Amino acid sequence: MTTAPVNHFDRGKPFYPLVMNYLIQLLGFKELAARGLIGAREISVEDLQKATREPFDTADRAAVESALGGLQKLLGPLELKSEFQNDRIIVDVDAIAEELIHGNHEYLLSFYIRAAANILVLAHEVTKDTSYRDTGPLWEFLRHSRNAATHNGLFHFTHGEPRRLAEWGPFRIEASLQGTSLFKDARGQGLLSPGDPIRLLWDIEQTYPNIRI
Length: 213
What we know:
This protein has 213 residues and is mostly helical. The chain has a domain at 11-26 and 109-207. The chain has 8 helices and 4 strands. The chain has helices spanning 15-38, 45-52, 61-75, 93-102, 105-109, 114-127, 137-149, 196-207, and strands spanning 78-82, 87-91, 167-168, 171-172. The longest helix has 24 residues, at 15-38.
């Protein structure tokens, strides 16, 4: 079985931004964990040169200060505009990294898998009621996975579901899965792992080349 090339999703089709945002979220988790363990990185001259993406004169004080300011802003607090309070909500990156590592990290890790569930929900929503979507096994697998994601991560069947074949590779969703986990938990109980949503969406995109936004 080949590996899904995650950078090769068609940018003109609906799954590309979903997969990219999913990966950014997961990579951000790793970056914050590293920051919580070793602290914020020091900015070097090499970093400044990479940031400019062009010949960089370190003797040019204005250029150095401009590049340094841009990097510090990127690595610094997150500022989120709030219409409600007519101000910005400031999120201290180091405080979040510290909380991730030294706070109640086991509790936070238990919600880590929710990101995988979210991409399935979004993939279902952006493709439902489209002309290219049918009731084939792959789409049915996505539909039932989405339903499980919205039922606290557990398969929940009503009205005689599953009514149609919901199959993807070695996996088949059947009524016997009622109440079981969509994603594997710490004990290894469940159906899928965090990489599976990427592979599922890749297989759907390849099987249905007429998918479009």
